[in-house]
Amino acid sequence: MTTATSTAAPAATREPPFTTGLTPWAQTLPQHISPTAAKNYLGCSLRFYFERVACIRKQTPAALHLGKAVHAALQAFHLARWRGGDDSPEATATAYEDAFHRLERDEGPVNFKDDDEREKCRLDGLRVVAAYLDSPEAMKEKPRAVEVLLKEDIPGLSVPLTGAMDLVEGNFTPVDFKSAAAKPDPAHAAFDHEIQLVSYQILLETATGETPPSLDLVFLVKTKTPQVIRVSSPPADAHRKRRVTALLETAVEGIAAGRYHPQPGMYCSWCQYKNECMAWLPGQAPTARSAA
Ligand code: SF4
Q1: Atom from ligand 1 closest to the CA of residue 262
Q2: DSSP state of 158
Q3: Alpha carbon of 89 to ligand 1 centroid (Å)
Q4: How many domains does the chain have?
Q5: Is residue 155 part of a domain?
Q6: Nearest CA owner, ligand 1 atom 7
Q7: Rounded distance, CA 37 to CA 92, Å?
Q8: Residue 80 lies inside a defined structural domain of this protein
Q9: Does the structure show a pLDDT above 80 at 41?
Q10: How far out from the chain centre does Cα 129 lie?
Q11: For residue 88, is it within any domain?
């Protein structure tokens, strides 16, 4: 197990030559790591800091709001199939509408430009949900599990790995649903979500002893005529699992060490923390309001 330790040092050498200023929380292992947190940290550690450590609230992006409401509708549909409840299109649409309003009230405000944009967003989500229910991808059988949260100790990781799977099919295939604005490129999509997919495999194998036959993403594409596209990847071999475990551990070590700094890149185009980022300088710590 990797632990952050401090060793006694002469007073003159105790201060590092360079400090980010974000070190009051350093040397603290997170309680666990999820693939989402690891991917966010590795994408831009400073954005991770603003979002999950300093907990600086921003308006919810409209696309994220829609994605969460669609996710809630699919969850209601899959739970109904699992429990033998009402899985009709009407009940699923009602679950969507309820979630759209509840999330706006509880987690908003959402950055809709105006009422027209809000209405378009609401209808886009309804169309996407209906397209899923009409598609061959809609769950026909009873799933093995819905919204399953697993937490396991994994060799090579200093803290437990957690993951919340949208759906586990009868043959142990984990399925994650993604809302998307454009049709995904299958190879790119699988690579982009490698940490999440392989983490789910590791969690399932550890919890059940079963290796899933594939690792699946189902994209709900918000084009004018919505599309539902499944991207399947083969289960990871030992090399892929070691690689993902190393990526997860890199994030754990960075969080434990308080390593947060700007990592400019494609994320910046839609980052909501540009002002905070521009104000960042080594030695000037933003105020932390709660832990990650
Ligand atoms: S603007 Fe870019 S570098 Fe700065 S916090 Fe956001 S993603 Fe990171």
Answers
A1: 3
A2: S
A3: 41
A4: 1
A5: yes
A6: 268
A7: 29
A8: no
A9: yes
A10: 20
A11: no
Residue 273 alpha carbon, nearest atom of ligand 1? 6
d(CA 199, CA 264): 26
Q: Report yes or no: 168 and 145 within 8 Å, Cβ to Cβ.
A: yes
Instruction: Report how far ligand 1's centroid is from the alpha carbon of 251 (Å).
Output: 17
Residue 219 has pLDDT above 50, yes or no: yes
Residue 23 domain flag:
no
Q: Give residue ranges with CB within 6 A of ligand 1.
A: 44, 46-47, 262-264, 267-268, 271, 273-274, 277
Strand order in the sheet with 174-180: 145-152, 161-168, 174-180, 215-221, 227-233
28 Cα–ligand 1 center, Å: 23
Alpha-carbon span 245 to 263, nearest angstrom: 22
Domain of residue 231 covers: 145-245
Tens-place pLDDT, residues 115-129: 999 999 999 999 999
Atom of ligand 1 nearest to the CA of 272: 6
Nearest atom in ligand 1 to the alpha carbon of residue 267 is: 7
Q: Kindly indicate the confidence band of residue 283, based on its pLDDT and cuts at 50, 70 and 90.
A: low
CATH code where residue 210 lies: 3.90.320.10
